[in-house]
Design a protein that fits this description.
The chain has about 80 residues and is α+β, with helices and mostly antiparallel strands. Helices cover about 15% and strands about 45% of the residues. Strand 3 and strand 4 form a beta hairpin. The two termini are about 25 Å apart.
């Protein structure tokens, strides 16, 4: 991949037990390899489920994913 910064937004659909059941890309797409890695990482994650009136419920969480392979400048520490 060319040096650059790649940004995408994913919607995570989380069930009542905190498992990610579906991942959907939104907006401008990431390069396919980056999107696949992000999908795999979030699909394997376990979240605290949403709560409503003290009960666990399904939820959707939007996350911004950033892949940055630019060289750090001398002043970036």
């Amino acid at each position: 991949f060319a040096s650059g910064r790649y940004v995408g937004v994913l919607s995570l659909f989380i069930d009542e037990e905190g498992h990610v059941k579906h991942v959907a890309a939104e907006g401008a797409p990431l390069p396919p390899a980056f999107e696949q890695v992000a999908r795999q990482a979030f699909s394997a994650a376990l979240f605290s489920p949403g709560q409503m009136d003290g009960r666990a419920v399904r939820s959707r969480q939007k996350v911004e994913v950033v892949f940055d392979n630019t060289l750090a400048g001398k002043d970036s520490r």
